[in-house]
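Q: Structure tokens for this one, please.
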Amino acid sequence: MNKRICLLTAGLVVAASACVAGAQTYVYMPNENEINPGPSNNAFPFNAGQAMRVQQVFAASQFGGQSGTITEIAFRVDESSGGPFSAGNIDTEIRLCHTSVNPQSMSDTFDSNYGGDVTLVYDGFLNLSSSGSGFDIVIDIDDVFNYDGVSNLLVEYKVFNAANTTQFDAAGTGLGNGGLLTIDRLWAFGANATTGSSGGDDGYVTRLAIEAGGYTCRITGSCPGNIDVNWDGAQPNKTQGIVFASNTGSFTINNGSCAGTQLGLGTRNLQLVRTIGTGGGSGSIGRSVGTGACGGFVQLVTVANPCEVSTVGQIP
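A: Here is the predicted structure, written as tokens:
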């Protein structure tokens, strides 16, 4: 193991793209179906009439660089096969994570699609309803998952009882054989199934609400030349590391005080740039960078209990 990786595994890491604290943005998956209905309809998992496990992977390109805390997930009824409904007591768990798996390369083994930061965002009984118009089937999830803006996102639903709602709007080709680069799904009957099928179209058309804030940062300046890394939302008076890599990914710190912490960075040219205090939680530091850094990625990590990582951003 080389020195720069050893430094990272000791618990130190870097910085990213900024958002205005408290601003909420809706992201539609796929983007093309924000207004236009998807070509399919889908029962899984909330109209299947039995327990299910379903994963959907959304390509990072669909987020447009938006990062922040995912606060709700919403769907709409299918325009031809769905209609108004009200259904309650749907025993559900929902998990989110960053993943290096692309929509069209999902494994048939559910756990193989996970990244290292799987986060439980809902555990309880859902009450879902719709008037039959717009994205009004809303799940208010716990505000505990901070999307980094550059990774693919996995959303997993486990439904433990027989849910009966209506047909939801779905993505895909409309031919029942998937085909999109931006979204795909894996499904199985049984909430604790270990393997599943990707057959059929690509799952629910989905709206995610993302609230900017949390541990974020922005990079200003130009490359090659002088850039500034500006951060906000860090834990005050802690040590943080600035880490650079030429690619995004899911590098996981494997020992030290931050063991198990997953970054949004890959391993190509991965290096700790420097460590610095967080001060009052906000700050800025300048650095001169050469051509080799242009287009690279940075992320911050605060060494705390637990360790926290910022969003990931790209050097301009």
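A few notes: The helical segments are 3-9. The longest strand covers residues 85-99.
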